[in-house]
Write a structure and sequence with these properties.
six-stranded mixed beta sheet, single chain, 2 domains, about 45% helix, binds manganese (II) ion, 12 strands, Diaminopimelate Epimerase, Chain A, domain 1
Length: about 350
């Protein structure tokens, strides 16, 4: 446990931090126009880190723009600068121009350039032409080799933790305070969302210490939490009621599932994107080992989302229907109607409790 903790705390003496971030800071120092981006289907960590860096770089007088591959989810539109984001469209000359004008591209919260969709080809072309430098800052495993400087540290709880380090190092280098309320709002959103509100395993003492500094900078935790998470509409709440009304529990509480029909979606006026949190209710029971949500699609197929605990590998089930994911979180779309899908997949899940 101690060695693991030491690993999570990382070696954070001033020297190490400085040498880690200096190559990034030198590129920022030399750049006039900066484009910052994050992965498709962006989340609080990617967007919050974008906010923090835009706010910091603007204070340094940089011409800085956000160019994202996909639209900003509703619950993150409260963040500063989100109304300035260009959602990249290859047909839009001004978007292309923005990339061509840049001398530095900073990619946040993914180490896979493919996750920037159409931005990828333009950025790599400009890099190869020698007119654009690329910095990547991320905390996932297995970084790709596409950046001039890659800071990818999987021990970090969030890209926001790394963005915090970068901001603090820039303050030293440029001898200018940068961590104001706007920067802190981005960083807090990043860290809060990627630690699932300060409870996932990488929530280190260090995370709490840096969060304290964000509060000192004026962040309002309740406002951010409400904006990100308390977004239910009356229809979504009604759908929760209908879905919870049909929960089935098997295998001595180890399997729990529910279904959502087209009729339920129509009655409540709720879209597919508002169904995701239903699984959390199933996982909210401590004995649930496998949770499944079956959603009837308009074309007669069935979307399945899985969550699990311990070694129950739900991605193995998802793979049989052309899907995939992680051991404890997976999904697929089965080419069968709702009831047929439920009876087949529930049986397959039950088999995991009866080893051959
Ligand atoms: Mn992240």
């Amino acid at each position: 446990m101690n060695s693991q903790l030491a690993h999570m705390e990382r070696d954070l003496d001033a020297q190490t931090l400085e040498s880690l971030w200096m190559p990034v800071i030198e590129l920022i120092d030399g750049a006039k126009r900066v484009v910052i981006s994050t992965h498709e289907n962006s989340d609080g960590d990617g967007l919050g880190s974008e906010v923090a860096l835009v706010a910091a770089l603007k204070q340094l007088g940089k011409d800085v723009h956000l160019v994202n591959p996909t639209v900003i989810p509703k619950n993150y539109q409260f963040l500063p600068f989100m109304n300035t984001v260009a959602v990249f469209d290859e047909q839009n000359e001004s978007h292309i121009q923005r990339l061509h004008d840049a001398d530095l591209f900073i990619l946040l919260d993914t180490n896979n350039i493919g996750r920037t969709r159409a931005i990828k080809n333009h950025v790599l072309e400009l890099r190869d032409a020698g007119t654009l430098k690329i910095v990547c800052i991320d905390h996932h495993l297995d970084p790709q080799d596409f950046a001039d400087v890659m800071v990818c540290i999987s021990a970090s709880a969030a890209t926001g933790e790394l963005a915090y380090e970068l901001v603090r190092e820039m303050e030293r280098y440029f001898e200018k305070p940068l961590l104001n309320k706007t920067v802190a709002t981005g960083l807090y959103t990043a860290v809060m969302t990627d630690t699932a509100s300060f409870k996932l395993p990488k929530t280190s003492p260090r995370i709490h210490r840096l969060t304290a500094e964000l509060l000192e900078a004026g962040v309002a935790p309740m406002e951010i939490y409400d904006s990100v998470y308390n977004t239910l509409t009356p229809g979504a709440l009604k759908l929760i009621g209908l879905a919870i009304g049909n929960i089935q529990i098997l295998e001595e509480n180890a399997i729990a599932y529910l279904s959502v029909t087209q009729a339920m979606l129509q009655e409540t006026g709720v879209g597919l994107s508002d169904t995701e949190r239903l699984l959390e209710y199933l996982m909210g029971m401590s004995k649930t080992m496998i949770a499944m949500m079956f959603i009837e699609l308009p074309d007669g197929k069935t979307k399945i989302s899985f969550r699990s605990r311990a070694d129950y590998a739900v991605n193995e089930i998802a793979k049989r229907y052309g899907g995939g994911g992680h051991r404890n979180a997976a999904g697929c779309t089965a080419p069968m109607p709702l009831n047929e899908t439920i009876s087949r997949v529930v049986k397959e899940a039950s088999e995991l409790f009866r080893p051959a």
